[in-house]
Amino acid sequence: MSQLDPKESNPILDFALNYEYPPYKDQTGTDKVVAFGDASHKCPIYVEQRPPCNDACPAGNDIRAWLTTVQQIETKKLSKEEVYRMLWNEVSKTQPLPAVCGRVCPNPCEGGCNRNEKDGSVSINAFERWLGDYAILNGFDHEKLTDNVRPETIAVVGSGPAGLSCAFQLARRGYKVTIFEAFKETGGMLRYGIPPYRLPRNIIDAEVAAIERMGVEIRCSTVIGKDISLDELKEKYDAVYLAIGAHKGIRLGLEGEDAPNVMTGAEFLNRVHSGEKVDVGDQVVVIGGGDTAIDAARVSLRLGADKVTILYRRTRNEMPAIDPEIEEALEENVDIQFLTAPIGIVSENGRAVAVKCQRMELGEPDKSGRRRPVAIEGSEFEVPCSILIPSISQEPEWLDAERYISGRDWLKPKKDWSLEDGVFAGGDAVNLGLVCGAIGDGRKAAESIHAKFTGEFPPLEEKKVIKAKDMSLEYYEDAERSERGHLAPEVRVKDGLETEIDQGITEEQFIKEAHRCMSCGLCFDCRQCVSFCPHGTIKRYKDNPVGEVMYTKYSECEGCHLCQLICPCGYIQMGGAEGL
Ligand code: FAD
């Protein structure tokens, strides 16, 4: 980052010198106007604000703290090894699955990043993956918040990201946790939905193993509601967390859907990822526009299909699937027929042989705000298929359903994530979402469970979110965003299901991305305010951590506002010291 020299002309200083301060009322109520150097009624105050990356992260990660921790290799002259360990401890406060999320999260944090207003967001997701992989390679353990073992025991149903996150957070707090998982292996949709070319299974295994090393017991192939009843769990454990996901694929409701070569995307992916040989034939038709549809299509290609067609009734703009996944599917020659809806199945000898389709156009917006597809009369046509994979959505499949479910099959917890006293729920079973959301849900439920036993609630985060317009982006040097390496389409499809496409970033890029963080809303010790203060009233504490480094001698401050104007990250505001 560049330091501005107060002795030289520069745009910020020119701006400050020519700045026309708005009129203000002095203590007698008289209107006054100040110019640079005049005394004013206001002095700098130091206000930490919420960076937009943190604000946009459903997992609740303190991303600014992650990135600025790595800056300490230079600012505090610490060794890389020391800093990576500190970073890991910071990350693992909220994120037990960084190598997983660093691969599959569609990174809402990057959409919010103020650096988008300059030269592109920080590559936060790739940064997270690098650290996650480093932690796996170096066998890092998670830090516990206490060495004490609490007397209460907790049962978690489901080992997807919501269940794992809840179990992890409770284990950090000293609880004895047991996860019950219906499938043979852990991970939920991470393993039985997302394909290995996007998320290698050894990565799931390694991050689950780190959670087990905290004392969490995982019992696979155990179905709650069948092998053990929910009542037994409630009796034996002090609290139960239901993180059962949404694994039942929703069907189209068309005649002929019971044929053996018609299966929902959730079922298809589950069977393939469970190791079953699924014969897709040469012409696969997938219906839907979400992640499941795109994954089913790309998996089919890797299982040997010649032609894979996705039928989607709206346009690309409305497609809910993660955008890079759509892009990669197109690169792999998946044919996506937009504005096309299935209206029937053509069957021969009990098997589906074609899908009857109709072209659509977009009409008025529906309840979701997306424009409703309207059929175009006389536009019917057929697409032949060797297998038909409807992938329009999923819903929870819960064996003890009648207890909590009314209307559609979703669990509906209260604000504290409880369904009733001692039973909590979260993740996809409550609201179909993303891995980061499920991780956030699991943590919040763990905090509620902990509060139930201790009365300790987590502090409320009420800080204002800082926007780029409230910062001085000129201060930060231009630095091109680092992009991850990717395998080329012609190589990756041929190489099959197991070959990972995303090659991540290098250590050098990882450090560079950390330095691209602008520390929005929190002092990073650039000392511009100290250099520019005309009266030398801003002082620096010695050896204080980042974020609490400056203070003002208010008795000598003239309220010239220069420090506020010069502060790159928007941490300095004028106001609080009036009358001092
Ligand atoms: P799940 O991951 O579904 O886990 C629930 C677990 O509960 C399962 O293991 C299940 O077996 C178990 N269970 C259910 N009932 C019982 C019972 N009675 N007894 C014991 N165990 C039980 N999100 C992203 O962020 N990025 C992506 O790229 C992405 N791609 C996706 C691709 C596909 C094909 C799918 C289907 C989803 C994708 N998602 C993606 C969404 C993401 O996977 C889910 O939001 C997330 O896994 C939800 O976590 P969960 O813990 O709530 O549920």
Write the layout of secondary structure elements.
Elements: H1 11-18, E1 24-25, E2 31-32, E3 44-46, H2 52-56, H3 63-75, H4 80-91, H5 98-104, H6 108-112, H7 124-137, E4 153-157, H8 161-172, E5 176-180, H9 189-192, H10 201-212, E6 217-219, H11 230-236, E7 239-242, E8 248-249, H12 265-273, E9 283-287, H13 291-302, E10 307-311, H14 323-331, E11 335-337, E12 340-348, E13 351-365, E14 371-375, E15 381-384, E16 387-390, E17 394-395, E18 418-420, E19 423-425, H15 435-454, E20 485-486, H16 489-494, E21 502-504, H17 507-516, H18 528-532, E22 538-540, E23 550-552, H19 562-566, E24 572-574
Parallel strand pairs: 4-5, 4-7, 5-6, 7-19, 9-10, 9-16, 10-11
Antiparallel strand pairs: 1-2, 3-24, 8-17, 12-13, 13-14, 13-15, 18-19, 20-21, 22-23
Helix pairs in contact: 3-4, 3-17, 5-7, 7-17, 8-15, 12-13
How does this structure look, described?
By secondary structure, the chain is of the alpha/beta class. 30% of the residues lie in helices and 17% in strands. Strands 6-5-4-7-19-18 form a six-stranded mixed sheet, sandwiched between helices. Strand 4 (153-157), helix 8 and strand 5 form a beta-alpha-beta unit. The longest helix has 20 residues, at 435-454. It is globular. It starts with 10 loop residues before the first helix and ends in a 6-residue tail after the last strand. The model is unreliable at 35-39 (pLDDT under 50). Bound molecules: flavin-adenine dinucleotide. Flavin-adenine dinucleotide binds at residues 104-106, 157-163, 180-183, 188-190, 193-194, 223-225, 243-245, 247, 269, 291-292, 295, 322, 399, 427-429, 433-436, 438.
